[in-house]
Amino acid sequence: MPAAPRLIAFFLPQFHPTPENDAWWGKGFTEWTNVTRARPLFDGHCQPHLPADLGFYDLRLREVRHQQIALAQAHGVGGFCYHYYWFSGRRLLFQPLDDMLGDTAADMPFCLNWANENWTRRWNAAEHDVLMEQRYRPEDDLGFIQSVAPFLRDRRYIRIDGAPLLLVYRPQQMPASARSTAIWRDYCRQAGIGELHLCAALTHGNLQFRELGFDSGVEFPPHNMRVGSLNARLNFNVPFTGNVLDYAEVARSYLARDYRTDRVFRTVVPCWDNTARTGGRATVLINSTPVNYEAWLRAAVDATVAERPDGERLVFINAWNEWAEGCHLEPDQRLGHAWLQATQRVAEGASHATAFEPVQLAPDAAAPRTLLGDLGAVLKYHAARWSGPLRLWLNRWPQLKSVATSVLRLLRR
After folding, report:
1. Which residues pair with 7 in a beta bridge?
2. How much is the average pLDDT of 333-359?
3. Alpha-carbon distance 325 to 83, whole Å?
4. What is the largest distance, in Å, between two alpha-carbon atoms of the chain?
5. Looking at residues 186-210, what average pLDDT do you find?
6. Are the CB atoms for 125 and 118 separated by under 8 Å?
7. Predicted confidence band at 124 (pLDDT cuts at 50, 70, 90)?
């Protein structure tokens, strides 16, 4: 019987204050700050996403990290892929990772994903305002691999055929990726780590990995989607420049990709809604239900068994705890453990989910907004708002009130 794929969830090591975020966003800022500010953008839109069992946790706490591991392992998650933030020798959001590395009781397989993009104020639509830049200096190739070497040596580190699995989020931005990856491989051989398995995330339009010096690729939905928008079928509460998409259509578009001759790992999202970060510029997958997620995950697992040999059967989940992107397996106040329970059924081979639920919109979404309708609604709102003060004012002028009352009676006929 073929080996079942290992499920690996991407993990955001944020959720704790740092000096940099204090300076850029205000004292005490964490991702929870954005999460709690989110508001619905249209009728039936579920925001904010709020945590349940683990609460608004702080990843500096060992107890929290152990609770996360226990929850994940109890529900079939076989490893975490931590995002790693390194900028020419300067690391960000490193304390939870360093603490995990030093905590032998945190017995969870893991790997790293170098999140090699600039940090900007894009949450405020100011991408030109760079907070921390990826500079790609000549000495950075060696500096980066030396930085991650202690993790690669750890007994818990995830390996493919004995080679530590190292991901890069935007390999296409590396100015000389083939040179960089060759330096990494040479260093690991000389340092006694051995061979590396380098995996390129397929993000921001990039579909290449071999040409960039990598051994494999990994899907990263919602990047590189090929679906249509549902915006015209919805009434928005704010000026909206983002996209609302059907979860099932997104899932089918990824499942239709054939990787039998390509070394690409599949990735599934339980849900996606980055309203908390981007407001009216958000990308929202509606009908992101546990049932639909389970159907996508089961199909991705089945496809992986058919496409990959035993030692390479990995399926990624995006993500364990991307709360500000509405993308999490951790329990929330609306659905509880439903995402985790769906994951567990697939991991244990007990899932019967095969079909996607049809798209469902709010009851009034079928009536599109029009300019005249919106103007009428504005006039009606302000007329109602001023009717009370106007009646009080007319009480001071009985004759004028009598005339106004007569005119209103005529208009109502």
Report:
1. 315
2. 95
3. 15
4. 99
5. 97
6. no
7. low
Tokens of 219: 């899907």
| Bridge partners of residue 103, in order along the sequence | none
Residue 219 · residue 250 · CB < 8 Å: no
The pLDDT value given to residue 401:
66
- Position 412 scores a pLDDT of 60
Question: Average pLDDT of 142-157?
Answer: 98
Residue 217 tokens read as 């690729």
Three-state secondary structure of the chain: CCCCCEEEEEECCCCCCCHHHHHHHCCCCCHHHHHHHCCCCECCCCCCCCECCCCCCCCCCHHHHHHHHHHHHHCCCCEEEEEEEEECCEEECCHHHHHHHHCCCCCCCEEEEECCCCEEEHHHCEEEEEEECCCCCCCHHHHHHHHHHHHHCCCCECEECCEEEEEECCHHHCCCHHHHHHHHHHHHHHCCCCCCEEEEEECCCCCCCHHHCCCEEEECCCCCCCCCCCHHHCCECCCCCCEEEEHHHHHHHHHCCCCCCCCEEEEECCCCECHHHHHHHCEEEECCCHHHHHHHHHHHHHHHHHHCCHHHCEEEECCCEEHHHCEECCCECCCECHHHHHHHHHHCCCCCCCCCCCCCCCHHHHCCCCHHHHHHHHHHHHHHHHHHHHHHHHCCCHHHHHHHHHHHHHHHC
> Any idea which of 60-69, 116-125, 179-188, 239-248 has the lowest mean pLDDT?
116-125
Per-residue tokens: 21 = 């975020």
- Predicted TM-score (pTM) of the model is 0.90
- For the chain, the straight-line distance linking the first and the last C-alpha, in angstroms and rounded, comes to 80
Q: How far apart are alpha carbons 138 and 393 in whole angstroms?
A: 76
What residues are paired with 286 via a beta bridge? 246
Q: Is 360 a residue whose pLDDT tops 80?
A: no
Query: What is the mean pLDDT of the segment spanning 370-398?
Result: 69
CB 177 within 8 A of CB 121: no
CA–CA distance, 169 with 223 (Å, rounded to integer): 11
The two three-digit tokens of residue 264, written as one number: 């690409």
